Amino acid sequence: MNDLTFITPEINWTVLGMPAFLMIWAMLVLIVDMFTSDRRVLLTLSLIGLGVTAALGALDYGSTISGFSDMLVFDKFGVLVNWILLAGTALTLLIAFDYMPRQNLSQGEFYPLVLFATSGMLFLVQSTDLVTIFIGVETLSIALYVLTGFAVPQFKSGEAAIKYLLLGGFAAGFLVYGIALIYGMTGKTNLAQIANELSTWQSTGKALDDPILLAGVGFVLIALGFKVSMFPFHAWTPDVYEGAPTPVTAYMSVATKGAAFAAMLRFLNVAFPALKPEWQLLFGLFAAATMAYGNIVAVAQTNLKRMLAYSSIAHAGYMLLGVLAASEKGISAFTVYLLAYTLTNLGAFAVLIALENRGMPVFELSDLRGLGKRSPLLALAMTVFMFSLAGVPPTAGFASKFGIFRAAWDANLDYLAIIGVVTSVISAFFYLRVIVTMWMRDTEATEPQPTYATASLSLGVIVAVIGIIAVGILPNIFTDLAKALVLTVAP
Amino acid sequence: MTNTNDLGFTILSLVVFLPAVGAIILAFMRGQRGAARIFALGWSTLVFAVSLPILFNFKHDAAGLQFYEYFNWIPDWGVRYELGLDGISLWLVLLTTFVTPLAIWSAWNVEEKTNNFLMLILLQEMGMLGVFLAQDLFLFYIFWEFTLIPMYFLIGMWGGKRRIYATVKFFLYTFAASVFMLIGIIALGLLNYKYLAQQGLPTDTAFQVQTLMANINQFGLSDTELKLLFLSFFVAFAVKVPLWPVHTWLPDAHVEAPTAGSVILAAVLLKMGGYGMIRFCVQLFPQIAQEWARPIALLAVIGIIYGAVLSYAQSDIKKLVAYSSVSHMGFIVLGIFALNEVGLQGAVLQMINHGLSTGALFLLIGMVYERTHTRELADYGGLWKVVPVFVYFLLFATMASVGLPGLNGFVGEFLIMLGAFDSPIGWTFTAFAAVGVILAAVYLLKMFQGIASGPFSERRTPHLSDLTRREVAILLPLCILMLVIGLYSSYFTRPMETTIKALEAFVANAAPLIAGQ
């Protein structure tokens, strides 16, 4: 009987710590949910879990550790992005806390589902292997499909969930197919090993522009581009954003994007630096189209949720600039942008949540009329968010855009920087319209509509506003933290 | 923070951020309208008082920046927080701190959301002071864009009937022009960063104006690249000034703005454009400024004539004065691009003069509008007999604006035309500008005559009463200054002399560009 030994794989808890802890914690919250219906307990538990997960990242911050046969990595970039995602998740839970029961969606599964999704994102951000990237993408997507349809008695929510599921399924297909093609050509799934393999190609004179390899890279990027709603893979965004429960929309618009962009960054910069001129050119065009399309179409929207959906497409374009710059400056600028965008967009959705009545799925711009009179503080917060989205100083939106354009210009993507500022002007038009509506137009409604600025939501909004001003005035705090971000290239 | 003045404290930062402190205090005075007004007036007067030591401790013989203070703000990007002041910005800073209390005092009748109104004016003051003092391009841009926000709300919430159209136009027009400056700033900062790193020098001053002035010729930029960079700055400033043909936001914004907003807009906000042209377009790109002096002067002259003709055609008094601003600001651009000592001195002095006289005109129009609720010139007439004190002040401000010798406007315009005549811009453009002076007399006297003489109609201009003591007290300091500048202009030109001489020498000695280099 002695010849049967069970060999435990070497588990590096530092590397896996953040996603694993959050996953386990989410299961705990799920179990607790069976015994209590007190939402406050669930919220508190979830926030504690997020906090501990963030602390796990702080323990070894600064060191670079690779684990699980180099499939996962624990590095500064990963931890930093994870922190932003965790902060975004915490804000999401705060702003959802009173909204869900108000909409008759009091199922406690909401909290563990969000934590599951976040855990998948953390995993994705730390992935350095095509297989782990796939696992990460699927973990977060499956939780998100459920969350999108969480308000399923409402027709639009169900429609959004089906749409997201079907198209997401297609995207997953592309992802797997792309991985298969890349593996077929290089015999590797590890990002760094793919790069090594390609450099051997180069040294032996084998052409890099092999159509099958290029198709593989393209398919993976289509799948990730779908997740970040990059033009022309954005078409699902407005419908899903409109139909999903607003906190879920808020969450998807920042966290999913952040995680998928982080994966894209690693995929392009670690595995395919050899093809940089090709993807910089192609994705440069996509980035330009994304910025232009998102901002121009947003001008025509009168529904606020759809407007923010198109605006989030546009912001994906700006973040793409940081990815494309493919430099230390670009990576650092990307993280700052992600932080600024997370705070701002969650804040803006929080204000919508505070105004959303039960059974009122469509949210028109004109509903904001006279908000400056009705609840000036909420309107003031929304003003800060809108100025930040438009990139007006002294908000975080400006500081982060400055960093992105600087990185793009430095990487000789000057035409993208110019398109970026021009589209920023277009975006100012519709963000300003929100401000005009709130402060300068009076409501026609005879009876005042109620606002639901509850304690937890207000806390979320206040945190967002303070964060935006802090990053806007003292971006150095965060740029210092995000300095010298080098993507790990393990053997 | 490193401080280089003899006062022992960072006076410039104090002056810039005091108004913001006032605005925060005002936020806690909700519901106490009267107290808030008195507080805002007192606080802005305090800011003015605090800014006076700058004038008294200003060293006339020093050409460089004074009261210099800085700390490393975003070292990773090469951005520093840097404030400093020289002969060009000295009077503009004082003009800002001087005009703001008067604007606040003129807004005594704002009944709706008074606290917000006063807070916005104080925030506006902070932004404008920051623009005149910032010596780092990034910091400058932050203040520059920030000035849009309070004015946007001032016009949009307390303005006239078409206020939303006017304020959105104002914001988008200036924002659109400014983002190209952002690209220019990013490009210059990156070039400087690389150059400094290459030379083994500390890179934390990459966006500093002084370092850029010293290094810009070492970047190896081609003629075209320099011109594009120049344009990215120039367009932003041209819109702000506003220079023909990008002036169209101004009449709308001026007409719809509340009186205090118009005063700040005319007196200080437009000057940011002129200041920016001197500080950035001329100082950073002296060769391009020389090369393009004539085309820019042509735009300025067209603006002078065009503004004057349109001003004459207006039936709305406020619009008339707004177009007169287009005409007058053309003179300032003409003076700047004369690129010699006399022209630049005249331009800076004229910025102050225009601030005082047009500010006074907008105040007067606001005062009479509050009583009659009409701005149609045709409705007015015969106010000589009814409200003589008002008419005395109107006559004084009109004459100053026309450029009557003995008052401030004459000195500025005279210096500008002398400078332009003596420069490559030449006598033809100067002659056309001189026509603008004559036209100014035509349209401003038409306005004065229409208001003061002729038959008085009780029906069309009802409830007229003469200026109150408060209103006289607002106008008096402005008028006294107009007279003082007119009689003792040397006191005002003296502090800027050294700076402007140095600037003239700098431009004259700028290495000529070799084509295709």
TrEMBL record, chain B:
Location of this chain's protein in the cell: Endomembrane system; Membrane
Membrane topology of this protein: Multi-pass membrane protein
Domain of life from the UniProt record: Bacteria
GO biological process: ATP synthesis coupled electron transport; electron transport coupled proton transport
Segments passing through the bilayer: 6-28, 35-56, 88-110, 140-158, 170-191, 228-250, 262-286, 292-313, 320-339, 351-370, 382-404, 424-445, 472-491
EC class: oxidoreductase
Every NADH:quinone oxidoreductase/Mrp antiporter transmembrane domain range: 134-432
Subcellular location, principal: membrane
Pfam families: Proton_antipo_M
InterPro entries: NADH_Q_OxRdtase_chainM/4, NADH_UbQ_OxRdtase, ND/Mrp_TM
Gene Ontology cellular component terms for the protein in this record: endomembrane system; membrane
UniProt-listed Enzyme Commission number(s): 1.6.99.5
Molecular function, one GO term: NADH dehydrogenase activity
Coiled coil: none
Keywords: Membrane, Oxidoreductase, Transmembrane, Transmembrane helix
NCBIfam families: NDH_I_M (TIGR01972)
Protein family according to the UniProt entry: Belongs to the complex I subunit 4 family.
Protein name: Proton-translocating NADH-quinone oxidoreductase, chain M
Source species of the chain: Herpetosiphon aurantiacus (strain ATCC 23779 / DSM 785 / 114-95)
